[in-house]
Amino acid sequence: MSMRIALGHIDTYDDRTAAFARQLGLTSVQLHAPSNLPSDAGYWTYPDLRALQDRCARDGLTIEGLENVPAALFDKIQRGAAGRDEQIENYQRTIRNLARAGIFLLGYHFITTYVWRTDMRAAGRGGARVTAFDLADVGAGNALASYKLTPSEPIEPPITAEQMWANYQYFLDAVLPVAEEAGVRLALHPDDPPVDAPLGGAARIFTTPAALEEGHRRANGSPAWGLNLCLGTVSEMDGHRSVDEVIDYFGRANAISYVHFRDVNGTVPAFTECFLGEGNLDPAAVMARLASVGFDGFIIDDHTPAMTDDLDTWGDTSSAAYCSRGRAHAIGYLQGILTACGRLPAGQES
């Protein structure tokens, strides 16, 4: 295998998204808490996972991995609340079922109140719609509150950073042995936005390169621990410097599972998402650095701006909104960089 572009962060897999992938010359997909997988049992069942795998195969596409179980299956784990042991047992079932279905990567986040934005329709280049965050405006609440992974239950009393680290360790100790046995890798997403101030009543702990390294150390060398390298989130920390630091550490540790390739203008406490090539990062330099540390996984676009006639920014999870001009632009941009790096596998040149 080598670095490759996949169609990722798919919330609803259907004929439209399958055709979109093929038209872009892609051969694999990554799905994000997909609506195709029922969660009534408290976990993802083998028959449902197998059916999704078979449907993608019929469309000529392979599944690179899945990301994020529904919030209702994971919230007590993050909060350390009563009922977390049952959720952990169900998460273990999901891991085993994934392996049985031939899917060996599961992304997750430990952001108790999920991603925050203070504006979901900010003005980007040429009037494109983008999302933005400003810590000074969080008193008005999360503009992403309606998103499917944003929890609805308030947190009382507040959860401290010390409690969050303890909850994370409890989770790792319970699931990593199961993941190792099943051959499934669990990939951690950094906290977005990476601010120390609690948002919605819970502290955020994966907000710096050093904190991500601490998360890795707490896995005690488990091969089942990986990083979902969200470049946009790491760019929000300290721009190119933080991105280079994370790539160097985790790349050399062979711990980068896959990459969310996006960027922002600015760093915390305020930033705005943007098109690739106009933000904090030099995308070609980032791609070259990934290659230099031996990364050979898949890359997906992420949080693309909504261009003329696109339905909305990434808050809209419909396939009609997903298959957008903004996404096609981002994927074509990434394919061009990868081609220039001489790393694009045969069949993805177009």
Automatic annotation (TrEMBL):
EC numbers, comma separated: 4.2.1.8
Regions annotated as coiled coil: none
Domain of life of the native organism: Bacteria
UniProt keyword terms in alphabetical order: Iron, Lyase, Manganese
Family as reported in the entry's similarity comment: Belongs to the mannonate dehydratase family.
One Pfam family here: UxuA
Name of the protein: mannonate dehydratase
Annotated GO biological process: D-glucuronate catabolic process
Keyword Cell membrane: no
GO terms, molecular function: ferrous iron binding; manganese ion binding; mannonate dehydratase activity
Signal peptide annotation: none
Transmembrane segments: none
UniProt key word Transmembrane helix: no
Pathway: Carbohydrate metabolism; pentose and glucuronate interconversion
Function: Catalyzes the dehydration of D-mannonate.
Organism in which the protein naturally occurs: Micromonospora rhizosphaerae
Obligatory cofactor(s): Mn(2+); Fe(2+)
Catalytic activity: D-mannonate = 2-dehydro-3-deoxy-D-gluconate + H2O
